[in-house]
Amino acid sequence: MADEGKPDAQLFQLLSGLLHQVEALTNQEEVELRSKIEALGLEVTKVPSKSTQHIDELELAKELDKLSEKLDDVDEMISSADPQVQSLLSGTADVWMPVITATADQRRNFTPSIGDDISQPQGKGSN
Predict the structure, then answer these.
(1) CB-hemisphere CA count at 13 Å for 109?
(2) Which of 3, 48, 58, 126 is most buried, most CB within 10 Å of its CB?
(3) What is the value of pTM for the model shown?
(4) For residue range 2-48, what is the model confidence (pLDDT) as tens digits?
(5) 107 and 44 in contact (C-beta within 8 Å)?
(6) How far is it, in rounded angstroms, from Cα 2 to Cα 67?
(7) Are 91 and 14 in contact (CB under 8 A)?
(8) What gap in Å lies between CA 14 and CA 113, rounded to an integer?
(9) What is the distance of C-alpha 112 from the center of its chain?
(10) What's the N-to-C CA distance of the chain in angstroms?
């Protein structure tokens, strides 16, 4: 498979596997979780439009401050999370970090992988 090495493909393969595990454990289709993963797929493939105007240093500093605040929020959520969640995030950081920190050029190479494994519920009686 050509997409296996791409950070976004690895992330969605991991999320799909986790979703299937949750569905197998609960014996229910997780519609809300599935839709959130699909929304994430759309979000990570977004590429910022090329700006025709130059950003001055003050505007750039403001944008960096906004991004810094968002990262602080993520850090706060992770540090206040359940130990199992922290362990999962820590153990899979090599998969999700490249996706959320990707540059615009890297995002252009991402494939919209939503709908592949995620939108297809697995059979429940295959034990």
Answers:
(1) 12
(2) 3
(3) 0.58
(4) 445 577 888 888 888 988 998 998 899 989 888 888 888 888 877 77
(5) yes
(6) 32
(7) no
(8) 12
(9) 12
(10) 27
